[in-house]
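Tokenised fold entry reproduced for absentees:

. . .
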Amino acid sequence: MTDAPSAPQGARADRAGEDSTAPQRPLELLFEVQDLDLQLDSLSAREAELPEELLSLRREMDDLNNRLEDTEMVLERIEAQTRRLDLDLKTTREQMERTRAEQDKNAFDARAQAQYGSRLQQLTERAEEMEEDLAPLRERESELLAQSKALREQHRALRPRLGELEVADEQRVADLRASGQEMRERREALLGSVDPRTAREYSAIRRSKGGVGVATLTSGRCSACNVSLPVNIQQRVSAGRVPPVKCPSCGRFLLSRAEG
């Protein structure tokens, strides 16, 4: 029986190289996707980092709003008290006028004059008490009106600058998003070359593992959790098995990469 002719050594080497790298290709793609994801994460973090001047001005505006709201709540309460006392004082004065009119009309003797006089004295004392109570309320009302006016003027003076900063920040965010557009397009193209199940699993791992879904096998250790891996795991990772091998410690996909 004649042995089949063997393939040339170079061809065998080429096929061996293809066989060894082909299973690793999805993870190589995911590793590149991850690099883009991390860069996009950094851009997103920068989007959320508002300029200090804008933050400071927003805090100042919020403080003004709170102070204005508190001032106007107190002012509303003082105004209500003032209105009630004013109404009571008006009613008391009307009663005094009616009592005087009745006194002039009906008080024909000393006893009636004394009764009407006593009634007028009570109403007069009550009116004087109300006037005494109204004086500090009106003073407080005047102070609160002045405070409210001053706070509104401060708020109005700051609004233009706040508007400028808000517009500038919107442009800053738009510029950051535009700078990441090419990365997002590249990411989608790479992810489209990975089978959907592996891509979904990578995304799930990344979400639960602080943004890193693919770790490298470095000196026998997982680069993410630094756990030394068993030899059989190292061999499976180096062989580029499909489905991808996960770190038994942290659950991330493991990628074998040449050192040095």
